[in-house]
Design brief:
amino-acid biosynthesis; 2 domains; 25% helix; Rossmann fold; 10 helices; 7-stranded mixed β-barrel; alpha/beta; 11-stranded mixed β-sheet; CarbP_synth_ssu_N_sf; CarbamoylP_synth_ssu; Glucose Oxidase, domain 1; 20 strands
Length: 388
């Protein structure tokens, strides 16, 4: 087995920090923004979440890989992380659902990883210094001169300013039929959508049309949608001007809108708000969020490195003319905006993942809230037509 080999590997951060370990997964060099994910479970869902494109993910949980990988739980068509950092990879797979080991899956998708290093020390360093570029050099590449490795890392692009949507989006429309009582066609802009999101929307009666990220407003209108949904995804929202313009056209059409994660940031921009990069982001399945409407605290799943800049208390006018807006959800760890709600148009969004594969499910009600908003909008449109 590859886990029994002792090929060298080194993690190099852009500030010159180095950690020596063992090769894990594919051999070679991987470059990306080094971030940490705090989930104790669900590494398969993390690895296959397109939002992690361009990032080297460090798992803070020390023991990874014991349940292997299976064909039922992936959130997309492949592993998206740029690289993978674990402390103690499992030597054996101990789950009846497993189809292959995590190590073999990383090799199959060409993901370079490193194991056997002090992940706690790296996490503490990132929490202090902020997320930064890094590189994993394994196998023969581990023997490169240390200064050469550092130069390679420092020449890599930073996450700010990157538009990665085209890398993760579908190339053609994909349709998932509605389950149960049909509400109508739903246009989902695929900026890195997870499969669990598609299934949750279909289970609410939407015929889900997953659209490529470069569609036009005319193509959206062509499917006669009852609403529009923007998915999660990687990259800097400030670099997604076309998606913001499309969303403004959607809002101008009066279509109900729901966005999650990246979609929340893009709604903020469409409303006229700014976004900014967080020091080390929120990634994991244990983030506490306050729903201001109910007063309930939810434990939620996150994966974002950017956030919306908006006043946390009271309502305010949309700078772009869409009426009153309020921050609907607040992160309790650092008071970051975790949701937006338009008060005069049918639109809302959250910064986290209500589909929450692999958990928790505190926020799953948001899909029901979206369905209720769409049905109410349809009823209003019907009444207005009848009264015309």
């Amino acid at each position: 087995m590859t886990l029994l080999t002792h090929d060298p590997a080194v993690l190099v951060l852009e500030d010159g920090t180095r950690h020596i370990g063992r090769a894990y997964g594919a051999r070679g060099t991987s470059l990306g923004e080094v971030v940490f994910a705090t989930g104790m479970t669900g590494y398969q869902e993390t690895l296959t979440d397109p939002s992690y494109a361009g990032q080297i993910v460090l798992q803070t949980a020390p023991h990874i890989g014991n349940t292997g990988m299976n064909g039922e739980d992936p959130e997309s068509r492949r592993i998206w992380v740029a690289g993978y950092i674990v402390r103690d990879p499992s030597r054996v797979v101990s789950n009846w659902r497993a189809d292959e080991s995590l190590d073999d899956a990383l090799i199959s998708d060409g993901v370079v990883g490193i194991s056997g290093i002090d992940t706690r020390a790296i996490t503490r360093h990132i929490r202090s210094a902020g997320s930064m570029r890094g590189g994993i050099f394994s196998g023969a590449d581990a023997a490169l001169d240390a200064q050469e490795q550092l130069s390679i890392v420092q020449a890599a692009p930073v996450m700010s300013g990157q538009n990665l949507s085209a890398e993760v989006s579908v190339g053609a429309v994909e349709v998932t039929p509605a389950v149960g009582e049909r509400v109508g066609n739903l246009a989902v802009l695929d900026l890195g959508v997870k499969q669990a999101t598609i299934l949750n929307l279909a289970e609410r009666g939407f015929e889900v049309h997953v659209l490529p990220q470069d569609v036009t407003i005319e193509q959206v209108r062509a499917i006669d949608p009852v609403a529009v949904f923007y998915s999660n995804g990687p990259g800097d929202p400030a670099a997604s001007g076309d998606h913001v313009a499309l969303l403004r056209a959607v809002l101008d059409d009066g279509l109900p809108f729901f966005g999650i994660c990246f979609g929340n940031q893009l709604l903020g921009r469409a409303l006229g708000l700014g976004t900014y990069k967080l020091p080390f982001g929120h990634r994991g399945i244990n983030q506490p969020v306050l729903d201001k409407q109910t007063g309930r605290v939810e434990i939620t799943a996150h994966n974002h490195g950017f956030a919306v800049d908006a006043p946390l208390e009271g309502s305010f006018d949309s700078p772009n003319g869409y009426g009153r807006v309020e921050v609907s959800h607040i992160g309790l760890n650092d008071r970051v905006v975790e949701g937006l709600r338009a008060l005069d148009i049918p639109a809302f969004s959250v910064q986290y993942h209500p589909e929450a594969a692999a958990g928790p499910h505190d926020a799953n009600y948001l899909f029901d809230r979206f369905r209720d908003m769409v049905i109410a909008n349809l009823q209003t449109r019907t009444e207005n037509t009848n009264n015309a």
